[in-house]
Design goal:
It is an enzyme of class 2 (transferase). Its EC number is 2.7.11.1. By secondary structure, the chain is α+β, with helices and mostly antiparallel strands. Helix content is 35%, strand content 14%. The two termini are 79 Å apart.
Length: 454
């Protein structure tokens, strides 16, 4: 279920009673699932009979409920209540702008009972805090890697829209039964563009162990590296089961010349890929400049996931059928060996082997271009060389056919003039000369044969 633990001391009776309707009957309250701080969270049912989450602005420290109406406890606290209410409505605006498959979706924002409400999706699952402590067997390296990837995608979407969450922690990340991760609670969010912030959001953004030290100092600009640190601390918690050391204590120790009180994950004995743990360590760097500067950069640094965990070879256990088959093969081999030994010792009993007949290809008849058989290739080649020399000694023909005259000049020459053959025939292999009989070549064509047309 959604957030059933870590409730504050605010009594649940301060919430609306079950059955109470909101927005003219569009939402019917079923039960309170979280109360404290600056609001009360309910499970409700909408007009389509769907379960939804309804968050009510109710700062219990300086307001009270009169029937169903919410009012400040004293005239002096009216201004504080209005500031909280204004901030609550800003949270709804952040949620509306931050639409993403890994960020809880807003259905409606409305005012009623002198306060404000946000209706959003109901995620049937648990937060990462309960997952680690109550379902530790479910927290595998593959799941942690899956959570990291989905959260990095959500963060990149937020930062691209100039939204800083500033409250990423195990209790603000939900996971359902299908391992779908959902980021919630934008009460501490702020804009990366205008730099405007409120004292209330600055207070809400601080969470020991998960907040970067910049969030403790309002005079320092808050950048995406703050969310990177918080996600690194959340993954640290999933790996170790322990809350990380406060970033302020780490900063004080390092600036004093002492060692960082938080050990690197990559140096520990954890059942995770070292390269993956190193990315978490970098995200948890004390100095903002040493961290990943964007979620996309961190995501690109993640090592390629293994298809399956590495396994050591286990001793093979042979079944009875396998042993029987092996025995039968060994018996057959023994029989063959025995038969071979018998024929060697007593050649007279050696079985007559079938004569091996060599496989020969049918003799091939060499023919010329016109299909006439050639009985003596060397004699035929000498005749061809003699005819070629005789043809080369004849004068060039002056008249050209009309078809040739229409050809380009260089091609005319090649069509009418046969290249002279040296009195010393070019030495060619027998294979090359025979090939010319069937494929029409007597020498290799060069680029000069084509001149400007090459």
């Amino acid at each position: 279920m959604l957030h059933q633990s870590r409730q504050t001391d605010t009594p649940l009776q301060e919430g609306l009673p079950p059955g109470r309707s909101l927005l003219e009957g569009q939402y019917h309250i079923e039960r309170v699932i979280r109360a404290g701080g600056f609001g009360v969270t309910y499970i409700a049912r909408d007009s389509l009979e769907r379960q939804v989450v309804v968050k009510e602005c109710f700062p219990a420290g300086f307001c009270r409920r009169l029937g169903t109406e919410v009012a400040a406890q004293s005239p002096l606290q009216k201004k504080s209540y209005r500031n909280v209410l204004r901030h609550f409505l800003r949270e709804a605006q952040w949620l509306e702008r931050a639409r993403h498959q890994n960020i809880v979706s807003v259905h409606q924002v409305f005012k009623e009972n002198s306060t404000a409400y946000i209706a959003m999706d109901y995620v049937q699952g648990c937060d990462l805090h309960d997952l680690r402590h109550e379902q530790a067997v479910r927290v595998s390296p593959q799941l942690v890697r899956h959570i990291a990837t989905q959260m990095l995608q959500a963060l990149q979407s937020l930062h691209d829209k100039a939204i800083l969450h500033r409250d990423i922690a195990p209790d603000n990340i939900l996971i359902d039964k299908l391992d779908q991760v959902m980021l919630i609670d934008f009460g501490a969010a702020c804009s990366l563009e205008d730099g405007q912030d409120t004292a209330l959001s600055a207070i809400l953004s601080v969470k020991d162990g998960y907040s970067a030290h910049e969030l403790y100092r309002p005079n320092i600009a808050h950048r995406p590296a703050c969310d990177i640190y918080a996600l690194g601390a959340t993954l640290y918690f999933l790996v170790t089961g322990e809350t990380p050391v406060s970033s302020v204590k780490r900063l004080d120790a390092v600036t004093a010349g002492a060692e960082d009180p938080m050990a690197l994950l990559a140096m520990g004995d954890w059942p995770y890929e070292t390269a993956f743990l190193e990315t978490i360590d970098k995200a948890l760097s004390i100095l903002p400049g040493a961290r990943y500067q964007s979620a996309a950069e961190w995501c690109a640094s993640l090592p390629e996931p293994l298809d399956r965990p590495l396994q050591t070879e286990e001793p093979q256990v042979h079944s009875a059928s396998a042993v029987s088959a092996t025995a039968a093969i060994e018996s057959a081999i023994a029989d063959l060996v025995s038969a071979s030994e018998a024929t060697v010792l007593n050649p007279s009993v050696r079985p007559a082997a079938a004569p091996l007949l060599p496989v020969q290809d049918a003799p091939r008849q060499v023919v010329d271009l016109f299909g006439n058989p050639i009985s003596d290739i060397d004699t035929w080649l000498e005749d061809q060389d003699r005819l070629a020399r005789a043809k080369a000694s004849q004068p060039l023909q002056e008249d050209l056919s009309p078809e040739v005259t229409r050809s380009p000049p260089r091609l005319q020459q090649s069509a009418s003039v046969q290249p002279a053959v040296s009195s010393q025939p070019e030495k060619r292999s027998l294979l090359h000369r025979v090939g010319g009989l069937f494929f029409g070549f007597s020498r290799r064509t060069t680029r000069d044969d084509y001149g400007d047309w090459a």
